[in-house]
Amino acid sequence: MLSNCVKVAISADPVYNEVYMSRKQFMQSSIFILILLLALVCVSYIVRTNGDVKDRFSGFYAEKDNILDIVMIGSSPVFPFYSAPKIWGDTGIAAYPLSSNVQRPVAMKYLVEEAEKTQSPSLYIFEMRMFTMDDEGLAENMAYTRGVTDNLKYSWNRVKTIQAMVPETEDRLSFYVDLFKYHTNWRMFAFASEWKNWRYHKVSDLKGFYMKDEVGPTTRPAAGGTSGILEIPDSQEAYLKDLLQYLQEEDLQALFIVSPYGETPEEQKMFNYMAGIVKEAGYGFLNMNDHYDEIGIVFEEDFADYGSHTNAVGAEKCTEFLEEYLLEHYQFSDKRGDARYASWDEAYELWQQKLGEAKSTIRERIINEDYAEREE
Taking CA 203 as the corner, what is the angle to CA 99 and CA 206, rounded to the nearest 5 degrees? Predict the structure, then answer.
């Protein structure tokens, strides 16, 4: 009886009731705000502009944890040059390109950090072509920055990446919350494929590889094998040394490569300079411009855009050369037959089908001299 009286007395206390209602309202408000924020994050992922870069990054996030042997990082010389499905089908090595168009080297360290959240690859491969360019000029075009920042999931590492890539004088708010930039991009909701991006997890059918069937002929450059060195821009050298230090501190294995292209003698000398820095730090450096004959690359037929990026035929050759180099210099286990890699078997089958189609198209274009349009 006394206990019931106490309860009645407390419930009748206006101060207690006011505190109770305030706490209840606070909890309800907090839950509502949390749900709203989560919904906005999902909407943000969907309305980000679609394309192969978005598909590549969301495909990376969709991979099972700790399933990748190699993560390839760099600019556009990565995803059309090296076929992850072919590497898998030939060797049982699971590789994935975490790359974007005109990717600024400053982003590399942060992309490694992003990869390490879910993967523990035996090897990171970095494509070095962008290190020849001055970062200040690259930073003037924010599209080169957004190719990375707008394709990362929301996290503290994404914040650090933005701080490293976007000058303080720029408006960083639209980078932190990219929905401010894409809030008018509601047309993305019309694509069923983009609804799969609500968590930024959407399987990449070709494991990030981008197949080209255009032909843009050029002449074989004479720069390959050029001796001598030429310093790279100061900012890029600083980013390279910072990346190397990070890799050493984290005890991560890495290979630095240059994909074959229409390089100049000056660029070749810059790669020689980079090679010295990289090798001194204890890492491998492979400039494929020194191996045109071993690769079998034909500049008049194997490029899609006049010496910058390979088409499907050139990619097959470059991939095979890289495979042989990896098997000779590194140790990997062959995971073919492992049920966890069923999607990789499917990717290899799809790649074979699309490669046959692309080769047929490329042959016809060469015969008919149906060449790709030159970019202005």
Answer: 65
